[in-house]
Amino acid sequence: MRAWSPVEIPTLPVSGPEVSLHDTSTGGRLTSAPVDAARMYVCGITPYDATHIGHANTYLAFDLLNRAWRSAGRTVRFVQNVTDVDDPLLERADKVGVDWVELAERETELFRQDMQALRILPPDALVGAVESIPLVIDLIQRLDAAGAIYRVEDDLYYSVAADPAFGAESHYDRDTMLRFFGERGGDPERDGKKDPLDPVVWRGERPGEPAWDSPFGRGRPGWHIECAAIALEHLGTTFDVQGGGSDLVFPHHEMCAGHAQVAAGEPFARIYSHAGMVGYGGEKMSKSLGNLVFVSALRNSDIDPMAVRLTLLRHHYRTDWEWTDEQLFAAVDDLATWRRAFSLGAGAPAAPVVTEVLAALGDDLDAPRAVAAIDAWAKATLGTDGLADTSDPEAAATLLPVLDAALGLAV
Ligand code: 5CA
Ligand code: ZN
Q1: Cα separation of 68 and 20, whole Å?
Q2: Is the CB of 128 under 6 A from ligand 1?
């Protein structure tokens, strides 16, 4: 399917460092220095409702990675899926009496507009689950050839026991796995499974649900096989980073890795990277709880999308945090302060700020540290804490492209 329009990024006269990134599977830092293009897969939306701040926070995290790689001189290949057929989408469509295809198309289009407004660089390929059904069928056949597939009535399951590395992505104990599997779309209670943790890869046709022909009967893809199939096709094996929110650590990313590893005999991704959860009103922001702050609603109330972006940048991508309107209003004020400083042209010395911003982002995407450097520069330039420093005549011209390229802030 179509991605959103390109977001321009200025070319910088200086390079950033190689990016070091926290890896969920090892629990440590890995320096990501891809030989060729850096390859990144980021799990996309299930389009049954509008993009909320939690989604935006996750996509901003991987946008920072994309930009940090580019600052380090890498080319990037970025692929994202859209889960345009799955239980929550069908349930919502049913509940509100809209055709599920129409609902998915409408919300996907709104998502594109939100991402564009937030200056998230578009993926090279935005790939829907429905258009990938032939890939899913092919991957199930490869898994079947490896002895990893079995049938329960009309449904096909993947056997987690087929992957010797099962559990190596999340490192959760079995009780935690069982709990998350049940909470996050799995069916641990289903009779006839070899292991309660085995996920469905092909769900046989049910009355009133969409279904497609396949060699195993009519049905539709399971969730994890969708991302495994899309990533393998569009990026190949052992790509650099598999990304998403921390609610995808298990079962989603563990199962994707398992499917790909059993089928291809090689590691799925080098690094598994997860963004923290954004909460609102004391709970994780989630469509099922309904405690949502929509990006489109903020845009419709004339909030500058750059203020939304700055609000998110003030939190390290791996922390869990709570959205409040006060933070957004503070970001609106901070942007106004920065704009006043930039409008002077001259300012405090910019070169050390450029170095600090790029270093901070290369250091596990430390956006709060990068933003603090800009705050300090604006204060020094405006003389908020003493004498105004306008000793660098090129300060604004030096800093503005870095803000744009590295932080995605068009000020
Ligand atoms: N379509 C699947 C991934 S293949 C899915 O999880 N869709 S989603 O619409 O539920 O979420 C889209 C992305 O936003 C995922 O990466 C998810 O981890 C992330 N996400 C969801 N809720 C939050 C939240 N409250 N805070 C941060 N990230 C979130
Ligand atoms: Zn996914």
Answers
A1: 10
A2: no
One digit per residue, the tens of pLDDT, for the chain of length 411 reads 999 999 999 999 999 999 999 999 999 999 876 777 999 999 999 999 999 999 999 999 999 999 999 999 999 999 999 999 999 999 999 999 999 999 999 999 999 999 999 999 999 999 999 999 999 999 999 999 999 999 999 999 999 999 999 999 999 999 999 999 999 999 999 999 999 999 999 999 999 999 999 999 999 999 999 999 999 999 999 999 999 999 999 999 999 999 999 999 999 999 999 999 999 988 888 877 888 999 999 999 999 999 999 999 999 999 999 999 999 999 999 999 999 999 999 999 999 999 999 999 999 999 999 999 999 999 999 999 889 999 999 999 999 999 999 999 999
Domain residue limits, the chain: 19-280, 304-407
pTM score, whole prediction: 0.97
Q: Among candidates 115, 111, 119, 113, which has minimal Cα distance to 9?
A: 119
Cα 55 vs. chain centroid, distance in angstroms? Answer: 7
Pick from 243, 225, 261, 224: nearest CA to 76:
243
86 lines ligand 1 (CB under 6 A): no
Question: What one-character DSSP code corresponds to residue 277?
Answer: P
CA-CA distances (angstroms) from residue 274 to 121, 241, 320, 339? 18, 10, 11, 32
| DSSP letter assigned to residue 22 | E
CA 81 to centroid of ligand 2, rounded, Å? 7
The CATH homologous superfamily to which domain 19-280 belongs is HUPs (3.40.50.620)
Residue 180, φ and ψ in degrees, nearest 5:
-65, -35
Measured distance between the N- and C-terminal CA atoms of the chain, rounded to whole angstroms: 31
The CATH number that domain 304-407 falls under is 1.20.120.640
Which atom from ligand 1 is nearest to the alpha carbon of 278? 26
In angstroms, the CA 158 to CA 290 distance is 32
Ligand 1 centre distance from Cα of residue 55 (Å): 5
Residue to probe by mutation, ligand 1, list 24, 42, 45, most atoms within 8 Å of CB: 45
The answer to whether 242 and 78 have CB atoms below 8 angstroms apart is no
